[in-house]
Amino acid sequence: MQPLCEKITSVLRNDYPGQACSLAKSLEAIGERWSLLIVRDVMNGNRRFSGIQESLGIARNVLSARLQRLIDEDILERRAYQESPPRHEYFLTEKGLDLWPALMALMHWGDRYTPGPEGPPVVVVHKGCGGTVSDRGICESCGQVLTAHDARATPGPGAAAYADLPYSPFAARR
Ligand SMILES: [Zn+2]
Description:
Blueprint: H1 2-13, H2 22-30, H3 35-43, H4 49-56, H5 60-72, E1 76-82, E2 87-92, H6 94-97, H7 100-113, E3 122-126, E4 151-155
Antiparallel strand pairs: 1-2, 3-4
Bound molecules: zinc ion (ZN).
């Protein structure tokens, strides 16, 4: 199936000429394979190249290219945490943090239409009260409309099924 995957990737990499649609513009920035998962990892505090690579099980050259693309799009920024040898961490810009509602909607969509037998592997909760966050980014306990800063990902009932995989959702923080 590799040729098909490559074909799809190359389609996503192209422009969408004649598309007067902001969804097409958004996909230009974040529609490449792995891009949203990199954004998810950084949002969850997995900020270093090696940690993201371990979490996603992705080739180094592909990860480098995707990180650079996200930096070029002003979605991520790179900050040095060590000078020799040079080491960096990745942080979301405001533009990147504003992807949080889209990630919440897509995650819940996956939970609904491709559910695992044990339930969701990840449950996002409101830091303030511990309530579950809805697909619209609203706390189901206190009703607060949340941002990325207000929420954190926790292992859900289906997390155990992924525990032995190198790219478990929580592998980077174990
Ligand atoms: Zn709450």
